[in-house]
Amino acid sequence: MKPLAGLRILDLTRVLAGPFATAILADLGAEVIKLEPPQGDDYRHIGPFTAGQSALFTLTNRGKASVVVDLKTPEGQALARDLAARCDVVVENFRPGVAARLGLGAEALRAANPGLVYCSISGFGQQGPAAGLPAYDLVAQAMSGWMAATGEEDGAPLKVGEALGDVAAGLYAVIAILAALVGRGQTGCGAALDVAMVDCLVAMLPTSHALHLYAGVPVARVGNRHPLSTPFGAFRTADGHAIIAVLGSRQFAALCAVIGAPEAAADPRFASDELRTTHEPALRALIEGWTAQHSTDAVVAALAAAQVPTAPILTLAQQLASEHARARALVTALPHHALGTAPVVGQPVRFDGAAPLAATGAPALGGQTRAVLEGLGLSRKQIDGLIAAGIVTETTDD
């Protein structure tokens, strides 16, 4: 299942948000041409490394063709415009205004190719008082409300343990691109898409929105607890912690029966989700009076048997070694020009039972330069001249 087969995407992005988005599109069958500067995407130079290959670059650039073009030259800019004229989608994450100065902005490229879907990814968007500021994931997390809501109760704010701002922007970019392509199918016209990391993170705070916009109360850090539902969090066991996530009276009654306190289901303090949250300390003491006497495995097994949502807290290594990960094929090895094969984690959604995945691993820097330029109609002599002038670079190995 390759639902995007036949679509061509010009990828002008670097580092994470943009490449994460275009890798998903490559998984789904799109042809992705990654335009890189002579030194390559920044992620090629950031570890960890295996046999000289960046793990981060390898993971987020599967299925793409690498073309090296020096966009500081007029000839390089002209080549990029020629490529864009033959593409369905352009994705860029320059600082706002840079693409336009290179002659690669949405207005110029869409004038030449009205059906083009042009997606810009930035920290703060293409317009607004902060549009020109640089932004990394940590900045976006700090300014979005995520860090303020994350951390131990009465503790310091914490960032999420992954580059959530980049990943969120990449996912919203994919959603917007696919929606714009559907719209183009109806009207024949493309679209200019403006994806801001901060906006994406703000959009992903429904619980905080409920507290601030509807309840009129400040969003507070509550550690592993849920700010609205109880019991919903990590509970101490004899050898660690177990997650218990109860929502509704039926699940709460089942939990009370398992911990040997069936009468607690009728306790007025615990009669509703809101009341249970109000009396969370007393309820936690009751639950941990049982969980602390048993191992995490025993707690999880007993609760799962009673259909109470529960889980151990796994490391990534434990999850990827699990029966679930193997059954769902969460990690797949792809052919790689330097590593032989490289493990990747592709887009996870199954189409008729199968999860589409790119056919090849991340490309060598400039490994497809000649092939792509030949596809533009350039002769071998013309390509050799561009290489000699340093406008494009052809390599077969990193």
From TrEMBL:
The keyword Transferase applies. The keyword Cell membrane does not apply. Keywords: Transferase. It comes from the Bacteria. Signal peptide: none annotated. One of its GO terms (molecular function) is CoA-transferase activity. Gene3D superfamilies: Crotonobetainyl-coa:carnitine coa-transferase, domain 1, formyl-coa transferase, domain 3. This is CoA transferase.
